[in-house]
Structures
1.
Amino acid sequence: MSDVTRTPVVAGNWKLNQTIDESLTLVRQLREAISGVDGVEVIVGPVATALHAVAGELKGSNIGLAAQNTHHEASGAFTGELSPLLLADVGCTHCIVGHSERRQLFGETDAGVGRKAAALQAHGLVPIVCLGETLEQREAGETLGVCLGQLDASLDGVAVAGDRLIVAYEPVWAIGTGKTAKASDAQEVHAALRARLREAHGEVADSIRILYGGSVKPANAAELLAEVDIDGALVGGASLKAETFAPIVEAAAG
């Protein structure tokens, strides 16, 4: 075990919400709400149509900008897709890949997630690689097997380094349902993920931030973030309002 200190991360996934004007208002409110908070990395993930405007609003701040998806090729005949090259061009610093909604609704695979993550890194962006089990898999006692399998396959060919990769554990049954994994249960999965990273990549595993996602809100953030291997949160619904997102940022900052 190394003595690496991991700066916590709180990332907001706005999903398919917020017009450009609404996005700008939210960013302004958020900047004001967390202006005095230090020791935590904050990222916002607007819809694609708002990325350029939000990037302009974030200039001069320490808040990162994430896209919600990408294509693994830089350019070409891929109608409707956005590439890492274009995301970097618009001002993104991060990109969420492999979110359970993408996996479930759009058929994304571990291999595809890995290709996207590697492409993002090649263009200087940090992928936030998501993984997690369904309710059926949890009830069958398959949680660790599923999550470790997704981790291995999704990171095949991806550079594992603390400044180039973020992992997010998001149990599918806890996303948008109001249900949250117990802090101790979430910690068990996070610890297993870090142990697998350490087994495969050595002590660099201690620099990888592993976030928890799944109905994170002000009421449960502090308990979750107090666990030793939970390095922050990937926040959905609570990230759509500054008054609910800022307290989560403050909890992560300690």
2.
Amino acid sequence: MKNLLLLITALLLITTVQAQYPTGKVIETLGIESKITGYTVNYSVYLPPCYDSSERSYPIVYLLHGYSDNETGWIQFGEINRTADKAITNGDIPPMIIVMPNAKVTWYVNKYDGTDNYENMFIEEFIPHIEKKYRVREGKQYRAVSGLSMGGNGSLIYALKHPDKFGSCAAFSAAVYTNSEMKKNLEYKKKDWFKPIYGDLENGELPEHWTNNNVLDIIQKGNTKELNSVKFYIDCGDDDFLYKGNAALHVVMRDKKIKHEFRIRDGAHNWTYWRTNIIHGLKFIGDVFHR
């Protein structure tokens, strides 16, 4: 009898805990037929718990995956839906739509040879498609971009090159490379990764397509007032191998007087770090949504 009572109590506790966090809806295997890229761009979407029961419009976060991952990574490994459910219920973040597109290994930019114009697709086709299909609040202050690693770099590129489109950006473990690092990458370290995207070295010099899409160069050449219209949050683990680019990013933004939050936490370049710390980015973005 005692064991039965204990079992019933445990089940009631589990039910109570589950009931504390209403669950949002996750929809995978969605797609947009892109005329710009010539192929289907798949994506997943998280809709907040109150979406189906209301007629209101919601702010939106475009959450970008890392190298070799796809549109399911932030759900399968990052458990972003569970984090969002809990944070929305607790009032830590406002209800928001989270969209996760598949970018393959495009690095979220147009290829140097014009064979895959992913960035153009994202800005000109993907965002309009999503914000027509779902109830999204109008105005850049209600649109954010975030991501990890390759996606962290992609989120920075989009926010820096299109500051009129985004109110905030939260970059985690961003794959930002200094020019000296990229030169080594194109010489021997990761040539297979970057040559198809940016082109090869030209007489020992970095290709122009790289400098046009290098976050550090974009900031140096950018208009400070325009860049400061976006709120930036940068987060990287103290054991992350991308420490050099993230540190350089902080320095360049400071020198350029670009306002931003910069955080170094205990951790490495892995899902444990991103799954644990994405909430800080969502809170930062949520504060911008609330302004």
3.
Amino acid sequence: MKRQKINHVIHSDSPIHNLLVKGWVRTRRNSKGFSFIELNDGSCLSNLQVIADKSLENYDEIKCLTTGSAIAVTGKLSESPGKGQKWEVLADFIEIINLAPEDYPLQKKRHSDEFLRTIAHLRPRTNKYGAAFRIRSELSFAIHQFFRNNGFLYVHTPILTGLDCEGAGDLFGVTCLNLENSSKSDSNTDLSRDFFGKRAYLTVSGQLSAEMLALSLGDVYTFGPTFRAENSNTRRHAAEFWMVEPESAFCDLFENMALAENLIVSLTRHVLNNCKEDIALFSRYVDKGLLTRLQSVLSDPFVKITYEEAVSIISKSSHHFEYDLSFGKSLQAEHEKYLTEQYFKRPVIVYQYPKEITPFYMRLNDDNRTVAGMDVLLPIVGEIIGGSQREERLDVLHARMENMGLNLEDYWWYLESRKFGSVPHSGFGLGFERMLMFITGISNIRDVIPFPRTPRNIDF
């Protein structure tokens, strides 16, 4: 007999005989001659009620089932006389796959997020985290669907790299050498003995590789893990996180901005249409303003302002900021929050940043002081997308990289791409976890990743 998922069972149109469901016991209570079991298999938020009659051969064991136990139930799906549920299962047989001990840490009481992070291997069984990770799955599907529908090719870029794409230097080194036998102060390590014969790192971005593919295939995107060794314990930062990075040939900054806006709108609409039960949970218990905020993304176009306009708005505001903002300084989280939540009260795209605070690959504008870069800012989470039109002119790119002190020999292939059929092209990176934070109202990035990697945290 084939097992059926509970999310399909509860949406059945008619009773089902010879039904088989499997899952974990959420709660159980005994009544006169019966035991009522709330069963969940992770496929949806709702539990399925199972009624075990005392006539079952192993009823004495069934009435002692504990929370967290795993069982298999065969029986009949029947209309339920109880309120709040359409169906219930009248059990013919219940197999106890595993009986959880009494010290099972997830009990009926509400647990704090901090506590649940210490048992990340079990927290997906809670309502909140089960819903979060189902939405994560659906959002991943929506990303692939969006780009496929818009003619993009899905490409795979390396996780191991010899380059620092962003130039920030926050890289995780990778080696096969025995470091235990090396002095920490030894700067004369013979890299020729290492696997690649040179320094290697976990990637901070797939962008540079994606650019090469865009300059051959047109419109491409990559979606995968990236790594940054920032010693940051903020609610918005993690050492390992996922990035969505499209690159488009023959695309300028404003077309790039339009693609970014369309992507966020499409993802928001998809989740609202396909994750209604889980979104309702977050709207009710996590962020009561969630639905209003998500609907506003669909109804109002994003505001588009230059970096100089953003500086002017911030500097003229009577609002107290911890950090001053003037031309040449980066926007801080408090500035992003003010623009999106107080001044405009909707998403904002800031573009044309000063060249001094941007990476080497952003196209230099004619004013020689700004670049064709942009950030998309969302309420609650702040920056969710960073992107730009890429510098396609070899001489300008060469000079910019030299001024920033980069070793041009390491980037020979990147520079060479500007010699053979170089064209204007653009791209961006969307932080997948930050998009999940926006969609769910969850305020900490550690709670939208199944097993978060943050400083001093790699237990799971």
4.
Amino acid sequence: MSPSELILFFMKTSVILSVFAIGLEATFRDISYFLRHSRQFLLSFASIYLFVPLTAGIIILIFSDIHPAAKIAIFSLSVSPIPPLLPRKHLKTGGTLSYIIGLLVAMSLLAIIVVPLLVEIFSLAFNRPGGIFPSAVAQVVLSIILIPLAIGLIFRYLLPNIADKVARPILSIGSVFLLFGSSFILFKAFPAIISLIGSGTIFAIILFVAIALAIGHTFGGPVPNDRTALALSTVSRHPGIALAIAGINFPDQKLSLAAVILYLVISTIVTTIYLKIRQRSLQQPEKN
């Protein structure tokens, strides 16, 4: 197994185990959450699929001097809104479980149609031919999100007592795989990441992440924990789909992987700061 294949194995396994563990703690009612809350669905959709790609386009135009790979990463990530680590991160915020699961399922299903459409819109806007097939997105959604989640739900339905006992250990194992995968990625891509720093690249990514968090927080509704959950969903992007989009549309850009990793590192730092602020504010009554 090559280093790249090993990294991919660790990352995919981490996602699958994390989503499976969430399925072990969820119910079928959680999946249909947005069928009963249409207003929250529309606000979530607008936050994740409309305003973040629009923000990406504006930032790319404003920061015209940043490295081309950084522009590609911001564009690709903005139209790849399937957060692979959404359940693990969101449960730590104390968000409503039904809202979180409903968000994961609804936005993942919509990605099959919306992601290729967003790529096409960006291609036309920036006068560059390209695209991604819905089948490519569907394969990712099914393999690492919907199937593991469904298996977890079925397992819980059949063996609820065992599901309660094994959910957290499986989540912990997924976190270990994530740690190994992240370490390998950073080690392999560190020199390339350093080469991207400069010309406002760091500031552009920080601004993009901060605006995405603000959008999700604003559209999250009156429940404080749901605001946090949507903020994290809005800023979280799927690196696998982003790299596929970058590879199809910009095959000559060899630093796309490094730029995507740089985004993930910066996003992690900024969201950690956001979560600390939210944890403090949630200890007091929130002012709307």
